[in-house]
Amino acid sequence: MNSIFQEFFQDCVGSWKSERTYHYLPEQHVERSQTTFQVRPLTSEQKVKVLTDNSYNLERDLDNLPGFNLGFYTISETGEEVTQNLNLMFVPTTESGSLLEGDYLRDRAYEEARPIISHFRFNSVTKELLMTTNYTKVVSVDSITLNNPKVRIRKILNYLRPSEGQPLENLLLVGFGVELKTN
């Protein structure tokens, strides 16, 4: 497995603070928020639970698969607060040149409170992790680019979920953020 991929996840462990701007396109509304994150590595037992919750059969050594417990608290400029804690892990399935792709599993999805399997693509040249999740009503494309071990750039695009086989076109939300490691 790609060593830059492993290094990316090691650099993500710790405490982070994020300033984000969300553009809600249908409403033509812009909102700012602040988020604090706590990122901890998953234990083998937690990884097994994420796999079990998603009915994902894996016959590989779990120690080499990156996984996190992610706890976060967000407050918007309007005072709306969101707190969530979830477990997630990444299972690479293909590698071609600088691209590594695979399954991104969570025990609880952001948009829908249920286990979910998504797709990820990691570019070892740009250090961008791109995660695509097909929810019931939207498709979320979330990008994390690690500029250095203490700075990440975040981009979130949410599309109205198209009919099967159709391209993503109807953009509902665009989010941008700068994340700074605090420890």
Number of domains: 1
- CATH hierarchy: architecture: Beta Barrel
Level of helix content?
10-25%
- CATH topology annotation: Lipocalin
**Strand order across the biggest sheet?**
1-2-3-4-5-6-7-8-9-10
* Tally of contiguous helical segments: 2
Strand residue percentage: over 45%
Query: What structural category do the secondary elements indicate?
Result: mainly beta
H/E order of the elements?
HEEHEEEEEEEE
- Radius of gyration, in Å, reads 16 Å
Q: Name the CATH superfamily classification.
A: Calycin beta-barrel core domain
What is the CATH first-level class name?
Answer: Mainly Beta
Q: Which consecutive residue ranges, at least 5 long each, have pLDDT under 50?
A: none
Give the overall pLDDT as a whole number.
94
What's the total number of strands? 10
Q: For the report, how would you describe the main beta sheet?
A: 10 strands, antiparallel, barrel
Shape: globular
Measured between the Cα atoms of the first and last residue, the distance is 27 Å
Q: Summary?
A:
This protein is mainly beta.
Structure in words:
The protein has 183 residues and is mainly beta. The chain has one domain (3-181): Beta Barrel (Lipocalin). It is built from two helices and ten strands. The protein has helices spanning 3-12, 44-53; strands spanning 14-24, 29-41, 67-76, 81-96, 99-106, 116-123, 128-134, 138-148, 151-160, 171-181. It has a ten-stranded antiparallel barrel. A hairpin with a 4-residue loop joins strand 6 and strand 7 (128-134). The radius of gyration is 16 Å and the shape is globular. The two termini are 27 Å apart. The model has no long low-confidence stretch (mean pLDDT 94).
